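Methods — Computational structure assignment.
A single polypeptide chain was analysed. Its primary sequence is given first, followed by the predicted tertiary structure written as structure tokens.
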Amino acid sequence: MSAELLLALIPLVPVLAVFGIIAARARPNLREGVSIAAGVILFLLVAALAVTIDWAAPPTLVIAEPFPGLSLSLTPEPLGVLFALVASLLWPITTLYAVGYMRAHHEQNQTRFYTAFAVSICAAMCIALAGNMLTLFVFYEVLSVVTYPLVTHAGTDKAKRAGRVYLGLLMGTSVGFLLLAMVWTWNITGTLDFTPGGIFSDEVSGGVLGILLLLYVFGTGKAALMPFHRWLPAAMVAPTPVSALLHAVAVVKAGVFTVLKVSVYIFGIDRIGQIAAADWLVVIAALTIVLASAIALRKDNFKARLAYSTISQLSYITLGAMLGIAAGAIGGGLHIAMHAVGKITLFFCAGAVLVTAHKSKISELNGIGRRMPWTMGAFAIGALSMIGAPPFAGFISKWYLFGGALQTEQWIAVGAIVISTLLNAAYFLPIIYLAWFGRDRTPAEQAHGEAPAASVLALTTTAILALAFFLFNGPFIELESQLVRGPASGLQGP
């Protein structure tokens, strides 16, 4: 199958899945089966694209041309293919998890959930494979709109308030800042195409580039950089499978992916290193990393702690993009994948505890590991990956990010990574200890066992991936090394 045909089929699969899900709405098993099958097919198509593509001459698929010289088009590149691989891999796994969670929790409107999830994946694929900034922006907005009913799934006043915060911040920043940056860029360069090395000429002043960089980064609200982060904790009112979508599969990954893609293909890595505003963004990212970790340490609500952990972890990627060095860009790209498998495992575990033990607070988890060994075993793996401990996925990306910070002598970034790692350990390790060694005070009438089998299978799979991504990291590093010309600044992987 040619790369051109694969590129056309990839966004089509989730669209066809939408029709299949709606048609099978009266038969839940078939409905979920369609979703899982579509996810598997999508992943195979993206994987086939990754191995068949000629990076020197990638194919382009023009969807439409709304303005002369400016089209909606798809053109794969290494960073986007990695994002597409991660999102497509996690779609069927999340669906499998949702089967156990949604049924055990007796959630309403499940067909709407699976339909919106499929449309979200389609938007994520188009973002990942976008050939220019206009295409990315259009589907970035589509992703915001189609995930709104997922955030407000419960239909309560609290859910509706969270939805307003979610949509208001995401679309407010994108329309107010990101769109302005795009129009300004088009006026200066006459193009919005993603181009290796960037699109700005040497005649553009550093001051203009600095303002544009700030507009692009803060306009990408999905990256949850402080102070535009409030939507992420607010969205935790949604069911856990939605939280997994937000944190690992599509939404926040679309945000940090945009920041990284803009830094590599709009500005260029070398140019980023010459912009004074990038140093300020390193400081803001470092502060977000540390402050969000500190807030997470104080949260007793399970999902709230994970939400602030995500805010911190996302800023690792923004920090890497702003270092202006190959190792930072590679580390940021790798962290998209490494964070995804670790954090989705943690959310799966939190949801499993909620539906099985009906516990949402960390202080209530005494001895739960002995009742739910598979769930809390997977949690331990995901937590260690988030800390950055070997032999788990998070260690790989942190290695590159830390090395990049040292090479550029960005001591604020070095300090933030060290402090955040210690804070990660401080808010994750006590949960593991409490779950396995705490005294179980569960009354006999509330006794329970493991989570639903479908959910356990899903969270076990993602935990295994967090280990596998460490052991078999070569293909990921090789793929992301295509982002830069030449070797990755001489920095070798672990």
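Note: Residues 486-493 have pLDDT under 50 and may be disordered.
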